[in-house]
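User: Hi! I'm a student and our assignment asks us to look at how structure tokens line up with a sequence. Could you show me two examples?

Assistant: Happy to help. In each example below, the sequence comes first and the structure tokens follow. Example one:
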Amino acid sequence: MREVSDRLCREYAISVIENPGERAKNYAEWQAEQNGKPTHRGTIRADIDRAILASTTERDFLQVMAGSITADMNRLFAAQEKAQKYSF
């Protein structure tokens, strides 16, 4: 996929990152990983990996991802409601 993207960028005179490095993590994300706690990025990566394994077409992938996003949002809203219930 990267090769196709790079070729298209060169063809249309768009900049291409020649030697992409790994993006640095912020301290909170690094610390969470060190303590074995989930991170937003890790959760998203796991959702994408599951969607790829469960899909045979792009449409399947998008449907699986939509379901993952919906489930994540429901958990987030439930946590926010619970926090509001106990806030002073």
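Example two works the same way, sequence first and then tokens:
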Amino acid sequence: MKLTLEYDLLKKVMHNFYTVTNIRSSVYDGNYVKIMAYPEQHSKFCEFMHNNPTTRQNCIKSNVTAFKECKKNESLVIYTCHAGLTEVVAPLKDNHVIIGYIVFGQITTIEDTALHMQTLKTLCQQYGLYSLDCTELITDIQYHSEEKIQALAQLLEACTYYVMYKGIIRLNRNGFLTKLDHYIDQHIADKITIHDLCIEFMMSRTKLYDVINDSLNTSIGRYITVKRIEHAKKLLVETDSTITEIAELTGFTEYNYFCSVFKKEVGITANQYRFDNLTPTINTDRPMQ
């Protein structure tokens, strides 16, 4: 997956997040590769973990597990890493396609310093790291209550919306993606098959899947479904077409299936979406009371 990144603007957002929270954050692409962190340096304890080959692999595994859960649920995830520290990951979405993740963490919900120190010492002993002086290493691990972590998580989520709205991180819509979007838009009401796409782009199935995976990091079926729902949202607001008609116009042959997919993707029913986005009409013939 190729991303376009406004490096300076992203760094500014992460700097501002750190200024307000004093918490380190990192940005990863859709393939779980780190793009940027602010500050760049880990906490002392996490730096120690990353400098050990075994514990570093477990750090990576903790991140990837959280990313996969975030991708599966398409929502923010609060989790505990292998070292017992609390972290939060939020998805970055470009037209409902997850293209990356923002993470903050290396904090603890254990308020008692002595208990926290003993917990980390026990963990390190399990890894055979008996000479570790936890007193020095945990000095920069912040304690936050679960309630505050929830609030910080919502702040992080707001940052993701800002980053995507401003186009600070976005999917690199290369020639293939531009043509794919155009093809889907032109055939939004039709059944689109892999065979159709292979003919359109003159590619074998294997090559098509490789290009799609490299460009989107999601399945073509998922991508088409998202495009159909986005078009349905537009029709709900801009036309008087019935829900049944809109289902047909966006390629859903079954009304109930359309309603089910719409609610899953948008979070509310199609009827509710239309109602929530109606523009009130003001009668200008009557004087204001």
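Here is something you could point out in your write-up. The mean pLDDT is 87.
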